[in-house]
Write a sequence for this structure.
């Protein structure tokens, strides 16, 4: 399974754009962001939680977009080759978006 | 301080309707009920009114109907690095400064923005009805953003390595508060060209708040947005209205500013709601060109034309650049005359950024 994501928007706009990919392999996963030369291997627990969240789906956009909130575009490709795409905004409580938010900050700040 | 809202139907009516009832009804009981509801504490009313400022029920405005003398009413909360809004009350209107710099920044910035709108355009707060201004600081953990959620302004501390405190630059506060103003007026859809106009209007008036506070003319102003927000990059900003695409260049972490200055480089990306923070460079630059061509303080004439346009009933939620541009030309003519240098400056500005305007007076509004 593979997941790719792009964070865009926010008050600062394009300078904060982050894209990343997660490759799930066995019970582990690797996060990479080529543009920002970032690599992080997830431990088994984090990989399992993320795989579950990604498998459950991206969800639907809710209501109005708050100005200057972030936009998250997510694509999940499962082992059978099926692809699902979704776009969410803001500080969604969706656990998948929560993870992408944190990881995007990590990638952006090089932490 | 407040009168209980005894007639429930009056509690849910917006102030302008209550004022109309109070003014026009011949029924003394109805009039009393409307006046009672109007006097209910703003803090109770604010949540209902602000609900409408993000695309819900549109608030209409009637200039000159505001009941009381305009007065700012600020409330600043701290989120304690959590993401729960509004957080803990830290400073209310009239209270002395506190130890927390972000709280004071937000308090002062909201005050400066309120003063600007009142002095320049006789606008009484976000909704022109004296809406209390609410802001939360220290939102999230190292949160690199500020936003308007339809009810209040929210400011992060920044991560401390790339971004500093989002309450520090005055234009950031002016920008966010202006999203509330736009939401209560044209309520431009936050997508594509309408979204880029929404962003641009926030940059324009955010910059004018800064210029007004510094008493700078159009030629003295730096026309930069968010200068001082980036740590260890004191000369850089997030956007340049004078020269879109030049706010930062070849930065190892931030890359290069991709904002276009003209339609030739319009970004068709679906990201960021259709590039609203990128394509805003085009109307931003048009405003800069018009303001510097007119000269003097930018909020006096160019700002007035843009403000008139924002309030123009012909400006649709889905307006594109051309629709907005044509309305600015019409409003320039309306206020300064069809042969005025102001109208010519506006036409020339839009022409220079590649947005077609009709030089005649046809009603074109999106
Ligand atoms: Zn904005």
């Amino acid at each position: 399974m593979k997941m790719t994501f792009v964070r865009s928007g926010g008050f600062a706009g394009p300078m904060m754009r982050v894209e990343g990919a997660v490759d799930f392999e066995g019970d582990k996963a690797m996060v990479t962001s080529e543009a920002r030369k970032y690599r992080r291997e997830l431990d088994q627990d984090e990989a399992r939680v993320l795989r579950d969240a990604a498998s459950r789906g991206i969800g639907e956009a809710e209501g109005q977009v708050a100005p200057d909130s972030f936009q998250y575009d997510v694509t999940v490709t499962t082992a059978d080759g099926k692809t699902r795409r979704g776009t969410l905004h803001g500080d969604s409580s969706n656990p998948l978006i929560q993870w992408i938010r944190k990881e995007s900050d990590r990638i952006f700040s090089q932490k | 301080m407040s009168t209980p809202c005894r007639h429930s139907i009056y509690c849910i009516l917006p102030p302008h309707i209550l004022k109309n009832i109070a003014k026009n009804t011949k029924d003394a009981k109805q009039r009393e009920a409307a006046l009672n509801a109007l006097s209910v504490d703003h803090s109770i009313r604010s949540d209902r009114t602000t609900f409408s400022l993000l695309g819900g029920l549109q608030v209409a405005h009637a200039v000159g109907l505001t009941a009381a003398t305009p007065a700012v009413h600020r409330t600043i909360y701290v989120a304690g690095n959590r993401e729960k809004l509004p957080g803990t009350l830290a400073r209310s209107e009239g209270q002395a400064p506190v130890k927390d710099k972000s709280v004071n920044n937000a308090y002062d910035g909201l005050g400066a923005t309120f003063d600007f709108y009142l002095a320049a355009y006789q606008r009484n707060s976000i909704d022109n009805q004296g809406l209390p201004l609410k802001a939360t600081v220290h939102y999230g953990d190292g949160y690199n953003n500020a936003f308007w959620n339809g009810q209040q302004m929210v400011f992060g501390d920044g991560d401390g390595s790339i971004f500093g405190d989002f309450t520090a630059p005055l234009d950031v506060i002016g920008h966010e508060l202006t999203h509330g103003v736009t939401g209560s007026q044209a309520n431009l859809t936050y997508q594509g060209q309408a979204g880029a106009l929404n962003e641009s209007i926030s940059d324009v008036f955010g910059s004018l708040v800064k210029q007004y506070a510094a008493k700078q003319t159009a030629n003295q102003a730096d026309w930069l947005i968010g200068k001082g927000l980036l740590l260890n990059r004191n000369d850089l900003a997030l956007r340049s209205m004078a020269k879109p695409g030049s706010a930062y260049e070849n930065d190892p972490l931030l890359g290069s500013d991709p904002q276009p200055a003209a339609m030739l480089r319009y970004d068709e990306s679906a990201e960021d709601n259709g590039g609203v923070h990128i394509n805003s460079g085009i109307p931003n630059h048009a405003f800069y060109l018009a303001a510097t061509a007119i000269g003097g303080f930018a909020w006096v004439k160019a700002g007035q034309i843009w403000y008139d346009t924002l309030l123009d009933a012909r400006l649709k939620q889905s307006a594109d650049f051309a629709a907005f541009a044509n309305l600015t030309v019409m409003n320039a003519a309306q206020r300064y005359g069809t042969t005025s240098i102001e109208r010519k400056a506006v036409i020339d500005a839009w022409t220079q950024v590649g947005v077609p305007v009709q030089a005649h007076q046809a009603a074109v509004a999106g």
In short: The first strand of chain A starts at residue 2 and ends at 9. The CA atoms of residues 12 and 101 of chain A lie 15 Å apart. The pocket of zinc ion is lined by residues A 11, 67-68; B 175, 179, 199, 202 (CB under 6 Å).
